[in-house]
Specification:
Number of helices: 5
Order of helices and strands: HHHHH
Strand content: under 5%
Largest sheet: none
Helix content: over 70%
Number of strands: 0
Length: 79
């Protein structure tokens, strides 16, 4: 992953990190990732409507959501 991509796709990077931490059956992992993505994109869209750039809005959404490792742990499936 290039540094430019990491800076321009915070939600995608977060989802990749979350997936790396998950130890769930495939269907449960897909559902968790889909729900997480939906939440992050809705949060980022609200921040954009409030005036943030897309990248900054995505960064805000990710920061507010919490760490990928913690989410995976809460799902009962941390590495």
């Amino acid at each position: 992953m290039t540094a430019a991509r990491k800076q321009s796709e915070p939600i995608e990077d977060y989802l990749d990190e979350l997936m790396a931490h998950l130890r769930l059956p495939a269907r449960a992992a897909r559902r968790l990732l889909a729900e997480t993505e939906d939440h992050l994109r809705q949060s980022a869209a609200a921040a954009e409507r409030a005036g943030a750039t897309r990248v900054n809005a995505e960064h805000q959404a990710v920061q507010q959501f919490g760490s990928a490792a913690q989410i995976a742990k809460q799902a009962g499936a941390a590495r």
